Amino acid sequence: MPKKLGADHTIARIRNPEYRKTTRLLKEELGLTMSINPEEVAAREILKSLSYPSQVKVNSFANGKSELVEFKIMNHSPLIGLPISKVNKTLKTNVLFCTIEREHEIHIPEGSTIIQQGDKINFTGTTKDIENFLYKNGIKRTRPLREVMIVGGGKITFYLTQKLIELGIDVRIIEKNKARCLELVEQFPEATIIHGDGTDHEFLLSESLNQMDSFIALTDNDEENVIVCMFASKNGVPRVLPKINRISLGFLLERLGIQNAITPKMLCANQIVQYVRAMQNSVGSNVESLLTILDSNVEILEFRVRDNCKFTGIPLKDVKFKKDILIGYYSRKGVISIAKGDSIILTGDTVMIFSLEKGLRDINDVLDK
After folding, report:
1. Read out DSSP for 17-66?
2. What is the pTM of this model?
3. 286-293/298-304 β-pairing
4. What single string gives the DSSP state of each residue in 261-281?
5. What is Dmax (Cα atoms) for the chain?
6. What is the pLDDT of residue 37?
7. Hey, which residues does 72 pair with through a beta bridge?
């Protein structure tokens, strides 16, 4: 029997790539219930973000089966002045609006909610429906991802480069530490490793910056990452993504027109929260997963529907939910569907719920009693 560390549940952060293949052994020997590699998680998030234009931000939930997209309503948007209930019919789209942030206040929208310029909306749908919706709003998918430039040769770069190479994408890494460059050359002979200062604008241009399909800044300096990403964007790179360690810089990124950024600490915290909440089972219900968005002001919870659920077999339009609750998706036998007024939840389904109320533990907590 493995020797436990003195607690029922133990979580360890494992950063060294050398331990990737021994994670299962470490869990067995040390009695770990969960291990987290924030750099590997960050690499997966970056790869996902690269599939969308820079104007939008994307989160995955329901174990990666669904995506939540965030973008800001600009002055040319055809959505301005439309009530939520008429958007899909008017634009011939099929998405679900989950949240609206307006003047720093977050709301779960109703059908009568009028979209205004400056609103930051979160919506979801199938990949095809999301692409169609973005296209109808003037946000077109950028050219295919063929060449990527990464500044900084740290651990995130290690995991990201592996994934990019597997996809057949050309990777160009700029690292100012010569010894680290030599390590990267050995690890990734297929990539182009360049010894130089990735924050030097002239140097970046000399390395064909304006020919890149994406530019990712992963140094340990938040300000430098943001500045070089702005420079790359101004020189025509369609996708830019900086790493930031300080969550407080989020407001600055928006002002500078950078919608996407990667924050490893936040990703790590989200994974721990998901695990902890999943342990808080109540009788007849189970929090399968949890994701927080909008600076942790909104929770997306996945519940397993048990026999004690009080709204099974009833059309959702006839169920009285709390004001700040939205049933987003339901999954039945592996098929995910957007929840609509006529949708009926059955025992055995899983449902994805968007909530401004924190700490929901039971699926019946969403009801307005």
Report:
1. GGGGGGHHHHHHHHT-SEEE-HHHHHHHHHHHHTTS-TT-EEEEETTTTE
2. 0.75
3. antiparallel
4. -B-HHHHHHHHHHHHHHHH--
5. 65
6. 76
7. 120
